[in-house]
Structures are given as C-alpha cells and as structure tokens.
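Collaboration report, partner site 2.

Our partner group contributed sequences for two proteins of shared interest, and the home lab folded both. The records are reproduced in the order in which they were received, starting with the first partner submission.
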Amino acid sequence: MHVSCPPGGETDARAFYGSVLGLAEVDKPPALTGRGGVWFRGESYELHVGIEEEFLAATKAHPAFDVQDIDRVAERVRKAGHHRAGVRGAQTSGLVCARVRRARATPD
C-alpha cells in the first residue's frame, strides 16, 4: 500500500509507523532513494510512504493493519500523543487504521 507525506516527513513517518506501530523499515532500491520517502515491510504487507510536494492529507484513505492486541496498540498510539481516531477492534484482536492525528494539532 502507498501513503504520502510532505517533503521532510520521513522522520514523522519513522516515528509513527516504526516506533509507535512497530513496523520494520526496509531500504528502498538505490534507484528510488533520491525521491525521499521511507518503506516498511512485514510478513503480509509492504507500506511505502512517498513524498508529495503539494501534500494534502487524505480525509478518508488510510492503511489498516491486523493486530493481535488492539488495546496494547491503542495505548502506544495514545502515549505517543495521538488520539484513537480509527483505532477499533474487539477484545484482544482487531484492526488498526493508521489514520491518526496529533492530539495537539486537531483536538476533539
């Protein structure tokens, strides 16, 4: 799947997808490194965060991940300063929709 971020957004992408969600970053092919962005890969997914010069945040489009412990992931998202928009699930398993917003930027 592919999502976008503004120029210079790689640090935020690594912080959220890598540190908060725990996705494994992988090297981009050498021919694509000059374009910026960052890639993550797991057993059943590959997530490419690409750079868009005229970036506009999507209002509905977002990646979703199947997780074993939705409550643990939701707590990590909350502790990182994001609210739980799009984090949903039942009991100990569920789906994490990575359409989250910084709590400071968009208070609800």
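Second partner submission, folded after the first:
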Amino acid sequence: PGSMDRASCHPHQQIGNQVAQAQLSADELLRAYCTLMYANCGTYEEAAKRLGLDRRTVKAKIDHDLLEQITGANVNMTTV
C-alpha cells in the first residue's frame, strides 16, 4: 500500500489510469478492486459474491484510505 496516487482526481479515475499505465502490483490492484466493489455493494458478503472471493478475503483487502476517498466519510470498518 502507499503507492496508490492520491492526486486530486476521482479515485475511480486514479485506479483506471494506474491500470492503463501498468503501475499497480497484483496486490494493489486486488486491494483497489475489492475496495471499489465493497463501496458499491455496501457489504462484504455481496462484494465477495460478485468478486468470487471469500468475504474474509474482501475484508482483509479493503484499503481504508481509498474507501474514505470514495465514500467521502471516515468509515468504521468493524461491522460485518
């Protein structure tokens, strides 16, 4: 973590740009995609179902800083 560019553009655009330029490691890409999916779905279970992963894997891969950027709020990650 930490190599995700925190520029002023929208997080979705940042990730897309980084993917297009092959700037992310496999783990960074998985963390970003799990975080985006969780932000869209709202639950680890639904995100895991859509990703074909275990919910515990999704929860472990969440990038809390990125999630805060996406949602615009400080999210408490202790639920589900």
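Feedback sent to the partner group on the second submission included the following. The longest helix spans residues 26-41. Residues 1-7 have pLDDT under 50 and may be disordered.
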